[in-house]
Amino acid sequence: MSVVDRLSADEDRKRRARRTRTIAIWVTRVLTLVISLGAWEAASRTERIDPLFFSSPSQVVNFLVASVPSEVFWVNVGVTLRETLLGLVIGSLGGVLVGLLFAEFSFLRDTYTPFMTLFNSLPRVALAPMFIIWFGIGETSKVVLAVSLVFFIVMVNAESGARSADIEHLSAVRSMGATRLQVFTKVMWPAALPSILSSMRLAVVYALLGAVVGEMLAAQRGIGQQIQYNATTFNTAGVLGLLLTLASIALILNAIVLLIERRMLGWRV
């Protein structure tokens, strides 16, 4: 067998091994989910757990089947999604801008880092009632809360990513007479981009968290407001169904961020 044939055979074995591993992972996931839901349903039907407090998978499915076709459900989903996306976009843009400025200008970093550390240490979720007092019970207070959670996540990663730029690359472009803008766009920005995009996956979750927490405290519409309503009426199936809806939204947004990351970082090995 020639070298080319051996390499081709090795590659085929590796491809089959990867395919087998992927199938095994998905089968294990499905089995775990089915067994868990089956045990939950059986425990609820035999009243080993109280259905009033724990509900059951069938009740959650019934709630979603009844709710998803309704216009009210999608209005609430739209409100929460709008608040989440606005908080994500505004917080991310602000975090990227401040993080890159801190990385580029040491005077700004040394001057304002203590203030940023102070603000970042404040529990913004605990400050949510104050945001509602300051900005009202409308969507603005939820967007502000989401921005406050997203901003520091992206800022820290943008700064650390830009400052991790290779010293030799920086020295090389500067020795060739590159301007400060060229150094930033050709070296620091590509170095910061992977960290920024990685932080976006965490930022998506926190933006959704901020919007929902704000809605649960005081809101006229939104998934968080509906969760609070169903909880006060002991509709645990409704609460779990809405939590499943939130999880689905988070998974979809995370998948979109991953797709953007792969497209923008396709040059990386």
From TrEMBL:
Signal peptide: none annotated. It is a multi-pass membrane protein. Keywords: Cell membrane, Membrane, Transmembrane, Transmembrane helix, Transport. PROSITE patterns: ABC_TM1 (PS50928). Residues 77-261 form the ABC transmembrane type-1 domain. It is found in: Cell membrane. Pfam families: BPD_transp_1. The keyword tRNA processing does not apply. InterPro entries: MetI-like (IPR000515), MetI-like_sf (IPR035906). The chain crosses the membrane at residues 23-43, 84-103, 239-260. Belongs to the binding-protein-dependent transport system permease family. This is ABC transporter permease. It comes from Dactylosporangium roseum.
